[in-house]
Amino acid sequence: MRVLRGRDEEGSIAPAVPVLALVLLLLAGLVLDASRQLSARARAVAYAEEAARAGAAAVDLDAPDLRLLPQEQVAARVTAYCAAVAASGAPVVDPASCFRGTTAVGDPSGRRTVVRTHVELVLPASLLGIVGVRELRAAGDGSARPFEGTREEDAR
């Protein structure tokens, strides 16, 4: 028995293979780089929180109440922490821009002053470089205030 064909269909899948391979590669790039960016965001938040704690540790030991040193000294501690993180190999964009300021919250005496920080990381993209995405950015904010005591009542 003889099968009749109108056209020769051999090799008709060959043009689709590179397109499918590229689509699968881009999908893998999205998964891989998105997970790296989420991880970098968690690291940025952790660095920002630690930088805020470093700034909140700048307590004036001569004051009778829990009061921060002048803002310049708080900023110096935050910047020093961010610079140390950058020196350890973390891709911190600009350690000098980590400090965002201090804010008095609900207490005119300055006892509840909050130190605010912002850390931005930049990572090289891995597979998304195929489509022109060269870097991934992740940012995190942190805040901390001076704290004394070990009981819950001391935190208020």
From TrEMBL:
Keywords: Membrane, Transmembrane, Transmembrane helix. The chain crosses the membrane at residues 12-32. InterPro entries: Tad_N. It comes from the Bacteria. Residues 11-58 form the Putative Flp pilus-assembly TadG-like N-terminal domain. This is Pilus assembly protein TadG-related protein.
